[in-house]
Amino acid sequence: MRILVTGTAGFIGNQLALKLLERGDEVIGLDNLNDYYDVQLKLDRLARIQDHTGYTDMRLDLADRAGIEALFRKYQPQKVVNLAAQAGVRYSLQNPHAYIDSNIVGFINILEGCRHHQVEHLVYASSSSVYGANQAMPFSVHDNVDHPLSLYAASKKANELMAHSYSSLYQLPTTGLRFFTVYGPWGRPDMAPFLFTQAILAGKAIDVFNYGNHRRDFTYIDDIVEGIVRTLDHTASANLDWSGLHPDPATSLAPWRVYNIGNQQPIELMTYIETLERYLDKTASKNLLPMQPGDVPDTYADVEALIADVDYRPTTSIDEGVKRFVEWYLDYYRI
């Protein structure tokens, strides 16, 4: 397969590209290498895949309409995985326009490319953030998600709606994946596991929001990538039993699906911190702080739909995942 993967300098996109290349796919990799976080980390990720014979590296912004049109015209990808996006809940409170440019304008450019070049399947990143004010646990794809608590979450919900319109109008198969707190080697420096590890090693206090009462469905990177690949290979199809009288938010009469992709085993944030402390052999000093705007107290993925459709079953325990992350961190930063 010739597959366009956007965000190949990013955490998930890079690991996905590596897995696709190793199984023999051709990967067209796109990234704009923005400076939202350490560009050197992004370059080091790219170094893992750039010399592979099946890889083509593109420096391009999703919001560059002419550039995206030219890319689709030249390379004619058979499938697309759109992982490039402006990430981060808290950053969306500071720089909302970045989310419109990347997550809305960029996504319509991807949809148009898929539409005009007969792409067989578009898989794209959504987020557990779309559940917003929903308090029913575990979060189910069959729940309503119309109350986002941040612009980031709203942009991801918008992606799902935009994809549905293209699936309906043009019969473009699309699948949205709602990621739940991804962590592991080569992770993002703006996320808690990275920030906590950095601070603990430096002897600095870590900020623990909601006074440590968060629960998160931490999901190891390899489990996430396995789920993406299985979903990519399972082209979205119409649910012929769907009814507008009793609409199912997860399926459609169009070839459109959304899935949760998580560990289905939420843990207390304090438990995660304790696991980090054990493998770092250091005790963290903690600043216990109130809940931040845009945050939700708990995330918990119901992944039964993904199990049923692609036999997705995460296998990495928190203990093993944290151990691997710490080993990578100490090696990468030569500590």
What descriptive keywords fit this protein?
335 residues; 7-stranded parallel beta sheet; alpha/beta; globular; two-stranded parallel sheet
Structure description:
It is globular, with a radius of gyration of 19 Å. The model has no long low-confidence stretch (mean pLDDT 94). Strand 1, helix 1 and strand 2 form a beta-alpha-beta unit. It has eleven helices and 13 strands. By secondary structure, the chain is α/β, with parallel strands linked by helices. It has a seven-stranded parallel beta sheet, with helices on both faces. It has a two-stranded parallel sheet with strand order 7-10.
Topology readout:
Elements: E1 2-6, H1 11-22, E2 26-31, H2 39-47, E3 55-59, H3 65-75, E4 79-82, H4 91-94, H5 96-116, E5 121-127, H6 151-170, E6 174-179, E7 182-183, H7 192-202, E8 206-208, E9 215-216, E10 219-220, H8 221-233, E11 256-261, E12 267-268, H9 269-280, E13 286-288, H10 304-310, H11 318-332
Summarize the structure.
This protein has 335 residues and is an alpha/beta fold. The protein is 40% helix and 16% strand. It contains 11 helices and 13 strands.
